[in-house]
Design a protein that fits this description.
The complex is a heterodimer of chains A (166) and B (157). Chain A has helices at 2-10, 12-19, 21-49, 58-62, 65-85, 87-91, 94-116, 118-121, 132-157. Chain A is mainly alpha-helical. Chain A has one domain. Chain B has one domain. The chains are: A mainly alpha (166), B mainly alpha (157).
């Protein structure tokens, strides 16, 4: 692991991010815009899957998923730049670890919904009701994404520490 | 004593500034509120441009109380964050530009709904573009606040 972190640290991307002042700042601005795209789209989709956003076909709200994906990709790319800026700092930061774990769970959850609810996601009935399992996944998705914001913000607070309890 | 230092001296402001968790938790709440407000308004702007056309715009109107909820979270968390650093924020140009963007962004959002409800969709597209530009500028200048502050500290040393 140490070798990989060192390699990322010494990569041109890491060097460039550390030497050019505006890279990190601009990256953070894009990271926040990506976050709005991702959360805004997921909020509408998940509220519909929770049957809280009524009289709209599920198929219509899933048209927003590409928006969520664009937001996610913006944040993945800028996130890689931040990580290369200081790989060792991020790797041992408990808030960063928790955030990455949550993002992975959100990914698995989204995959699970796509596999198990394929038909439901394509429904063009505006009054289509969803099942309990799909509602649980949608509620989980919102909870996870908002927690991702929380732990993302906590990364700075935990800079230099390697445990939540220290 | 000025109003700003009075604000900064309030017990709640001191708690925000000096406790371990006050500041980061309020910043987290502020980011969540931002995600709700700006996220939903960007969805609205995209919809005005014809994206996800299967969602009736009238249905998005029903999500606006949620956007207001996000705005409320940010008004509250933002006020507390401001109170804790009032003397340094009041002269911070990035903060002042952000506040202008938020006010103009809010007014533009009202304007957008006025056009949308009046079914004036060609005008609404221009207003949607302006609204998106203002909210994204608010985020950009919000991010810059800390850098302007650090810069001021560096110069004072």
């Amino acid at each position: 692991m140490h070798t990989l972190l060192q390699w990322l640290h010494d990569s041109w991307l890491g060097e460039y991010a550390r030497q050019t002042f505006w890279v990190f700042t601009t990256g953070l601005v894009i990271h926040f815009i990506g976050l709005c795209l991702l959360l805004g789209a997921m909020l509408v989709v998940d509220l519909r899957l929770l049957d809280l956003f009524k009289r709209v076909p599920i198929r219509a709200v899933t048209a927003l998923l590409p928006v969520a994906l664009v937001g996610f990709c913006l944040n993945l790319l800028t996130g890689i730049v931040f990580f290369c800026f200081d790989p060792f700092g991020y790797w041992q930061n408990p808030a960063f670890r928790a955030k990455m774990l949550l993002v992975s769970i959100a990914g698995v959850n989204a995959l699970f919904v796509h596999i198990t609810a394929r038909k439901m996601l394509a429904s063009s009935d505006p009054d289509q009701r969803t099942g309990a399992l799909l509602k649980l996944s949608a509620a989980g998705s919102l909870l996870i994404w908002f927690s991702v914001i929380l732990f993302g913000r906590m990364i700075v607070a935990f800079q230099g520490s390697s445990s939540f309890f220290g | 004593m000025s109003l700003l230092s009075w604000l900064e001296g309030l017990p709640v402001s001191v708690w925000v500034a000096e406790s371990d968790w006050g500041y980061p938790l309020l910043l987290s709440a502020h980011s969540m509120g931002m995600a709700i407000v700006v996220g939903l308004l960007l969805v609205l702007d995209l919809r005005v441009f014809g994206f996800a056309a299967g969602i009736p715009i009238a249905a998005l109107d029903r999500l606006m109380p949620l956007a207001w909820g996000g705005f409320g979270i940010n008004l509250l968390s933002g006020s507390l964050l401001f109170a804790s650093t009032a003397t340094r924020l009041a002269g911070n140009w990035a903060f002042l530009v952000k506040m202008a963007c938020v006010v103009l962004g809010g007014l533009t959002t009202f304007w957008l709904w006025h056009q949308v409800r009046g079914n004036n969709m060609s005008r609404a597209k221009g207003v949607a573009l302006l609204s998106a530009a203002l909210w994204l500028s608010a985020i950009t200048f919000g991010r810059l606040i800390a850098y302007v502050m650090d810069h001021a500290i560096l110069h004072a040393q």
